[in-house]
Amino acid sequence: MRQFILFFRKEMLEMGRSYKWLWVPIIFLLLGVMQPVINRFMPEIMKSAGNLPKGMTITVEIPSGAEVLAQTLGQYNSVGLLILVLSLMTMISGERRSGVSAMIFSKPVSFISYVAAKWASMLSLVTVSFVLGYAGAWYYTVQMIGTVNTAAAIQAGFLYLIWMWFAGAVTLFVGSFLNPAAGIAFVSLGILLLLTMASGMLPFDLTWSPGTLPQVSVNWLQQGSGDVWSPLLISILCMVLFFTGTVFQARRRQT
């Protein structure tokens, strides 16, 4: 436990020195706030876009609060995932390339504590960033668009947070195998993109896939229902496997 605490403090300190605790939450907050603001002022933006024929008008219907919050989750599933992967891709490979991990493991330290500290710091960064952004989106949606069902919003946010955790787990797992940062980002984003696309493109049932969590979150916002337990349990199981694989790979690299 003592080793875990020391490694965790090191990871948190490094995140602070690289300003990840600043720029990642700020980007998530901006993504969250941007969607309700754009939807609220879109009619005025269209009117001022100009040069319409005399007498012609454009009517833009403002979506409901649930629809705007669902659009925000869509932003997180594209730009948000990119920011997340970029912020995590060198957590393991960077220390391996610089020789820091070799120096650490030259002493009798626990591989589990080492990996667990990285996972704990990853989960902390992802949770704080997403909760801040989602809370900002929810607040501005209610203030500028309309009310959102509280239970549905909390349920949807929790499900999407699990998807964010899953994305972070994939990135750390891939980073335990690859060294180039670009390769880690490409493979991680490719896996996440394939998972989200496969659930809608393949002819057989994939409602259990972790890639359905973003859509399930949207369904809970707009309809208040959806198949939750299958993708949730599979996601948790996969994260356990990713953690185990990351520990195994860290041990193999140092033996």
Can you tag this structure with a few keywords?
10 helices; 255 residues; mainly alpha; single chain
Describe the protein's topology.
Layout: H1 2-17, H2 20-49, H3 65-88, H4 93-98, H5 100-104, H6 111-144, H7 150-175, H8 181-201, H9 213-222, H10 229-253
Helix pairs in contact: 1-6, 2-3, 2-6, 3-6, 3-7, 3-8, 3-9, 6-7, 6-10, 7-8, 7-9, 7-10
Overall description:
77% of the residues lie in helices and 0% in strands. With 255 residues, the chain is mainly α. The longest helix has 34 residues, at 111-144. Helix 2 (20-49) packs across helix 3 (65-88), helix 2 (20-49) runs parallel beside helix 6 and helix 3 runs antiparallel to helix 8 (181-201). It has ten helices and no strands. The protein has helices at residues 2-17, 20-49, 65-88, 93-98, 100-104, 111-144, 150-175, 181-201, 213-222, 229-253.
